């Protein structure tokens, strides 16, 4: 997918617009599956990263399952044709009623709370469940995406294992999987391997396991020369540890992962048009036709997205602060060195495949953009741009029969 292709997409579908390269999703999936040489490997794509049905259908064709966190994501997966047996459901803080609703849909249940585990086991001891363990390992790109530490709301503390085992014994429930997820953007595979030893030790307490799920958190590069998780090295080392554990356990288990960002982040480009160039006493601003209502990650996580001027790529670079049209702090990048920007140029944001559209909103009553998939050398519209009718579709107007003067008089 070339810059010329991207420009043609903005001409056909307007801007702003999200574009996903199917070939990149496919190659990332193949790289991941090639890295782990085990008897059975299960890859469950984290739907929350990018939940468009066409993306789910593509991954399903590759043989990928789904990692879901809501009953709605489970239903999206089923609508995309994914077999319910290949969907794992790992909620946090949801009602028992929602979990039971997912049970009826046939997905694998993964429970991360002792109270819910006891309630579920008492009511449905015949249904196998996976247990999410908190290994108390601090890992991830920053505190907002580190979820395996001692203060995290996620998972059952490894120190609560005696209580957990008591619940399992008292309810007679069946544990068929054990799971952890320490965080996102993990650089040090040593930390990952250390946490895996904790999970292996916990797994020895359960005799009916079918799989061990190591979550994900693999880091992708955000700029040229950026560090990323060495999947091949991790694959070689973890495969060796896993096979050793399986021999000690007495039978072959499945090795599972739940990548989201790793599979789709680099496939995505977010394209926006420059509305204004504003020179101030200290800065040159490039104001674009979007804001954090469409791409909140830089403001929310401090994440970096490379910004390229695809309309004028050979021009002399200058420094710009790229900002949006939202009436609050809305900066995508400060003092970025970008080929000279003119009003009307199209800027391309990299790594826009994960947690971009899925975290978009209608803040300022703006429409959410279209989504396009580049597949087999062609642009395919996979979500229409919203309209004013979409903004008002579910609103119900009150028929105020009282005049403004009468309302004031009542007070």
UniProtKB/TrEMBL annotation:
Q: Name one Pfam family in it.
A: Orn_Arg_deC_N
Catalytic reaction(s) noted: meso-2,6-diaminopimelate + H(+) = L-lysine + CO2
UniProt superkingdom: Bacteria
Question: Under which pathway is this protein filed?
Answer: Amino-acid biosynthesis; L-lysine biosynthesis via DAP pathway; L-lysine from DL-2,6-diaminopimelate: step 1/1
Q: What class of enzyme is it?
A: lyase
Q: How does it assemble?
A: Homodimer.
- Name the UniProt record assigns to this protein: Diaminopimelate decarboxylase
Which species is listed as the source? Christiangramia sediminis
């Amino acid at each position: 997918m070339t810059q010329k292709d991207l420009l043609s997409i903005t001409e056909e579908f307007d801007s702003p617009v999200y574009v996903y390269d199917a070939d990149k999703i496919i190659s990332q999936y193949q790289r991941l599956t090639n890295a782990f040489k085990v008897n059975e490997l299960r890859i469950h794509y984290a739907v929350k990263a990018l939940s468009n049905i066409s993306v789910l259908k593509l991954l399903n064709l590759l043989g990928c399952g789904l990692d879901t966190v809501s009953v709605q994501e489970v239903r999206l997966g089923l609508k995309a044709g994914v077999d319910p047996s290949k969907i794992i459901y790992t909620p946090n803080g949801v009602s028992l009623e929602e979990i039971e609703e997912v049970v009826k849909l046939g997905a694998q249940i993964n429970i991360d709370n002792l109270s819910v585990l006891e309630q579920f086991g008492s009511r449905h001891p015949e249904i196998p469940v996976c247990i999410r363990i908190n290994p108390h390992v601090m890992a991830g790109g920053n505190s907002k995406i580190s979820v395996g530490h001692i203060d995290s709301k996620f998972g059952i503390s490894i120190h609560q294992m005696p209580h957990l085992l008591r619940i399992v014994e008292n309810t007679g429930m069946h544990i068929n999987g054990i799971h952890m997820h320490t965080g996102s953007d993990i650089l040090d595979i040593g930390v990952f391997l250390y946490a895996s030893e904790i999970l292996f030790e916990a797994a020895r307490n359960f005799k009916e396991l079918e799989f061990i799920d190591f979550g994900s958190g693999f880091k992708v590069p955000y700029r040229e020369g950026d560090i990323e998780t060495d999947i091949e090295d991790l694959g070689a080392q973890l495969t060796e540890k896993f096979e050793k554990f399986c021999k000690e356990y007495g039978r072959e288990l499945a090795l599972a992962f739940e990548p989201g960002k790793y599979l789709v982040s680099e496939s995505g480009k977010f394209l926006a048009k420059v509305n204004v160039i504003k020179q101030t006493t200290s800065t040159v601003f490039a104001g674009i036709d979007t804001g954090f209502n469409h791409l909140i990650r830089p403001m929310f996580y401090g994440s970096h997205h490379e910004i390229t001027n695809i309309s004028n790529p050979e021009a002399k670079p200058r420094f710009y602060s790229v900002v949006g049209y939202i009436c609050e702090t809305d900066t995508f990048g400060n003092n970025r060195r970008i080929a000279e920007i003119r009003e009307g140029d199209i800027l391309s944001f990299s790594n826009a495949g994960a947690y971009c559209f899925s975290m978009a909103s209608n803040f300022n009553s703006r429409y959410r953009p279209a989504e396009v998939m580049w597949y087999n050398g062609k642009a395919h519209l996979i979500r229409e741009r919203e309209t004013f009718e979409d903004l008002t579709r579910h609103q119900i107007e009150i028929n105020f029969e009282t005049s403004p003067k009468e309302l004031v008089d009542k007070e």
